[in-house]
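Cont'd.
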Amino acid sequence: MIRLMNRFEKIYAIVSSIPKSKVITYKQVSDIIGIKNPRIVGFALHKNKNPKKIPCHRVVHSDGTLAKGYAFGGPLKQKEKLKKEGVSFLNDKKVDLKNSFYSILSKSIS
DNA sequence: GTCCTGACGAGTA
DNA sequence: GTACTCGCCAGGA
């Protein structure tokens, strides 16, 4: 049950469930978890302890721009990763959400 | 317990 | 379209 998990646990669960070549927004994640502040999502990812399990690079802002504080190589690295996975970009700073957005089946995280 | 900080979002100018 | 401000919640000291 997702409700029995800590906020961070939920965030990690959701982010780690994002499939390859897909991205999701902080807004979406926070909405799924039930918190009103997307900032918590970023905060959680910042201090995440399982970088290899948490594809933080697949989490972007609501407008498709990349996170400025990506802690595992920087935004540039993040962009490269996404590109290599097949995520389409509108330009150098924004991902094509309408094409690569991950419509999470939410609550299935349990 | 309190205070400060933080990977954001939406609204306004 | 860009820049700035305010609000929001949770974690860590």
